[in-house]
Amino acid sequence: MNATISAAALTPEAQLLQALPLISVRNLTVAYGDQPVLDGVDLDVRPGEMVALLGASGSGKSTLMKSLTGFAPITAGTARVAGYDATNLRRGDLRKLRSDVGQVFQQFNLIPRLSVLTNVLTGALHNAGPGNLLGGFSSAHRRLAMHYLDRVGIAHKAKEPARSLSGGQQQRVAIARALMQQPRVILADEPVASLDPKLAGSVLGLLREIATEDGIPVLVSLHVLPLALDYSDRILGFRQGRMLISAPTPGLDAHKLSSLYDDEGEPVDHHV
Ligand SMILES: Nc1ncnc2c1ncn2[C@@H]1O[C@H](COP(=O)(O)OP(=O)(O)OP(=O)(O)O)[C@@H](O)[C@H]1O
Ligand SMILES: [Mg+2]
């Protein structure tokens, strides 16, 4: 009797578990001088997942993201990202790794006087290198950039200067620019901290849609618990450089999460 189960017979959850992680971190330790700011962190992020990082200011969320793109002083452990060993990059691989990782930032980091379309096109430079600027962008690049602008819902703004857009629209441009890299992974460090609650929800909804529909996993740091509960598949909770919570979002007790922010409270330890 053949006991093989076809992929189609698996539940979506089981298929997700089977997919190889695109981010895989083991015992990651980062220190600035003598001071460890990340201590023994383990995590796996698989295609299709939207994973939220929570924790008080200084708990290590940005440091974790930086360590995944070779920007933090890793002192122990391993971090594999999109097939690269981020702790031990060979010459030339650092640029390749960074071109495979789309990044979205709190302040959008657009070039204000350039058009929305040109801002999105700059995402292609990660893959091609700055030499691409000399001959200008190809029509295939322009079509792809328009496709991504359409994907994020602001194709009609393509010719406007980026500075004329609202914050929520600018963040959508930044997401289209990240997609232009054709990334394997997206890291979003507080992408909605400058947006009002309604726009914040719409930008997180877009990121989650990209994770679910395009299979590009999104690691997102947030400061607003309800947003993390509404828009993530899994929550990782940090406190003073240690990951104390790693659990699927559905059913996660908001009280446990709020204890991440207690000054005096007992550290929680809730791994699932
Ligand atoms: N370049 C650096 N040099 C020295 N210490 C640093 C550096 N970058 C970060 N740190 C320290 O590492 C710790 C973690 O910082 P990190 O920026 O990762 O926190 P965070 O969780 O992202 O905080 P926030 O919510 O405020 O963004 C802090 O104590 C910070 O002071
Ligand atoms: Mg931070």
Short descriptors:
alpha/beta; seven-stranded mixed sheet; four-stranded antiparallel sheet; 11 strands; 24% strand; disordered N terminus; binds adenosine-5'-triphosphate; binds magnesium ion
Total beta strand runs: 11
Q: Uncertain spans, ≥5 residues at pLDDT below 50?
A: 1-5
Quick one: CATH class? Alpha Beta
Structurally, the number of domains stands at 1
Shape: globular
Q: What does the oligomeric state look like here? A: single chain
CATH architecture: 3-Layer(aba) Sandwich
Which band does the percent of strand residues land in?
15-25%
List the helices and strands and how they pair.
Elements: H1 12-18, E1 23-32, E2 35-45, E3 50-55, H2 61-68, E4 74-81, E5 84-85, H3 93-100, E6 101-105, H4 116-121, H5 125-128, H6 132-135, H7 139-151, H8 167-180, E7 185-189, H9 197-214, E8 218-221, H10 225-231, E9 234-239, E10 242-248, H11 254-258, E11 270-271
Parallel strand pairs: 3-8, 3-9, 6-7, 7-8, 10-11
Antiparallel strand pairs: 1-2, 1-4, 4-5, 9-10
